[in-house]
Inverse folding.
């Protein structure tokens, strides 16, 4: 029901997508948001996918001072996720390690500004289309998030860079390059 989905977006929000294992750095992300009075006052946190919050996560959310309903976990299909990407103030990717990192590309494809850790494959995959941070530094992560969500010009720059970056990873380009390889082999 689209009316109910729109109600979830009453306040601006930061979007986190996927699992919340230790290497995804979810707890540090929550602690980062909680460390900023501005972020706590101005934003909700939407967690999409990744299964229900554990008891440990619920206790941490309460301990960090989030208000009831300020951190919400949702499940849904790709269409619903696309709506959340499209409406988010920023997609935050705090992961300590990623093999490739599809979710930042997915966020960019929906014109969502990306704030990402600067580790593993992220700079190679995302290029200049993200505001980067050291995922082990709450101060660095907070500054990166605030740089994007409190600057419409920075947010617009990242959206534009993200749209350009997505072209590099398009299926059409993949198919064209594969065909060119086959032509060279024939």
């Amino acid at each position: 029901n689209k009316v109910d989905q729109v109600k979830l977006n009453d306040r601006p929000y930061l979007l986190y997508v996927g699992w919340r294992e230790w290497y995804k750095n979810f707890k540090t992300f929550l602690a980062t948001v909680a460390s900023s009075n501005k972020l706590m006052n101005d934003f909700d946190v939407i967690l999409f996918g990744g299964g229900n919050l554990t008891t440990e996560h619920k206790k941490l959310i309460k301990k960090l001072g989030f208000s009831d309903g300020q951190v919400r976990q949702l499940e849904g299909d790709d269409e619903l996720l696309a709506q959340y990407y499209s409406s988010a103030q920023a997609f935050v990717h705090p992961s300590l390690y990623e093999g490739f990192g599809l979710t930042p590309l997915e966020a960019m494809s929906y014109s969502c500004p990306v704030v990402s850790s600067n580790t593993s494959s992220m700079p190679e995959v995302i290029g200049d289309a993200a505001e980067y941070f050291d995922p082990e530094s709450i101060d660095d992560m907070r500054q990166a998030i605030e740089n994007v969500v409190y600057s419409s010009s920075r947010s617009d720059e990242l959206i534009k860079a993200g749209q350009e970056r997505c072209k590099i990873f398009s299926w059409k380009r993949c198919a064209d390059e594969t065909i060119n390889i086959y032509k060279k082999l024939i």
